[in-house]
Amino acid sequence: MAALPAPETSSSTRFESVLEAVRAAILAGEFEPGERLHEVKLTTLLGVSRTPVRAALQKLASEGLLDYTPNRGYTLREFSIDEVISAYEVRAVLEGLAARLSAERGLNVSEIGTLQQALRDGDDLLRNGQITDEHRSEYSRINAYFHVTIHASAGSRLLNDMVYLCQQVPVSSPRNVVAFEEGDVRRRHEDHHRIFEAIVGREPWRAEMLMRDHVASVKSSLIRSLASPAAVQAATKTARRLRR
Amino acid sequence: MAALPAPETSSSTRFESVLEAVRAAILAGEFEPGERLHEVKLTTLLGVSRTPVRAALQKLASEGLLDYTPNRGYTLREFSIDEVISAYEVRAVLEGLAARLSAERGLNVSEIGTLQQALRDGDDLLRNGQITDEHRSEYSRINAYFHVTIHASAGSRLLNDMVYLCQQVPVSSPRNVVAFEEGDVRRRHEDHHRIFEAIVGREPWRAEMLMRDHVASVKSSLIRSLASPAAVQAATKTARRLRR
DNA sequence: AAGCATGAAAATGTATACATTATCTTTGAC
DNA sequence: GTCAAAGATAATGTATACATTTTCATGCTT
Prior knowledge:
The structure is a homodimer.
Chain A: H1 14-27, E1 36-37, H2 39-46, H3 50-62, E2 66-69, E3 73-76, H4 81-105, H5 109-127, H6 133-154, H7 157-168, H8 182-200, H9 204-227, H10 233-243
The structure holds a DNA duplex.
């Protein structure tokens, strides 16, 4: 069936463990926006010395999650709705560029294989009428594979790093597809087919526009769900938790 | 005359001094691509302990200048021509987005003032026929003001951070305008006038396309100068030094 | 001679002590 | 009672010692 494995996640060094622990705590809403993250507190909380804690905080600041002021330490950034939305705008133009570059360079055999696999897996998953939460979560993984493959085929590390940064913005992670309605999922899967077509057909401009609109549509869904929280409550659940 | 002051540059903490010192050393070509940057060596070289050195190296890695592997330290990244070129592609779509967002939001009085000042200063500078290196360097500062103001008016910190990251890629910094031919400088200044017009006139799509092409043209100039190094030797000078 | 195991050297990871800066509390003056 | 100054407290910045890992050289085995 699905030949796309889940990504591995190991941490050997303490710095990495602390990094993930603090990141998880932040995303779980355990800090207020603007709140200071004291090194010593985290130290006692995590049972390690200040050294790996400092390194982790610096990394999180470079990812945009924390603010840093010399001699004053780190504070949790607050993300306004505007910033979350513009993060999608940024991601849209970046992924659009990735699709264009990919179409210009052309895909290699392995990349074509992965994309076709992702398309087939999606087809299979959406074949039957009903879509459960499990389906959505599974589709989320397939979706990630599709996009990551295209980013990689663009051949620009800078571009890759920046897409990663976009995904570090709370609420703008691709796993949020879980929160979308069934029609949205089907529509997006059809987008994938067309985008693949444009890239394989070496149509850079079309690939860029399709991908751009594809990602921007996530933004629209988000705005829609924020406008009517009762209608699609699942979508705002995470958002509210993070803004608390 | 020119009411646009130069940016200030102070460093209070040692971490910052080390950061700038190492960054300057890298940009001056004092390390080979792929070469390791040993903490202890930098320690003895700079007369500080490993702590600020480690912090500086981590920062430089987050900016994309260094690679990091746990337990194995930092190495200087090598930037292929392709990567430098695609950095311009990225910058083009990002600045294009900034112009679009700026046109959508509209400029405030202060921003309009700064942009008009930049345009006037450019007009004055380019009025007389001859353009010296001093003129280019002066125009470079005016150019930076124009672009930075538009980034800021887009109102997205993520976008700002990413444009900054693009500029950290060697050879792709805006100060490279210095290396351009006279016709290029004049052409770009005219671009500025049209971009300003589009933003003030609240034409998001036009603003985006103009800005995108404006930045992409820098890429074209770079490619041109790389193709015929004898013709525009100044442009490649920095590039060769950094790739050595 | 090639390859592998062993151990020494050196580099990075981590903890901790001390220095410097920021923050808070207290005290005094008005 | 309010404000300001001074000291106390606590936080971050830096240096250094120790732990762990990597790397390299040495010598052994085949």
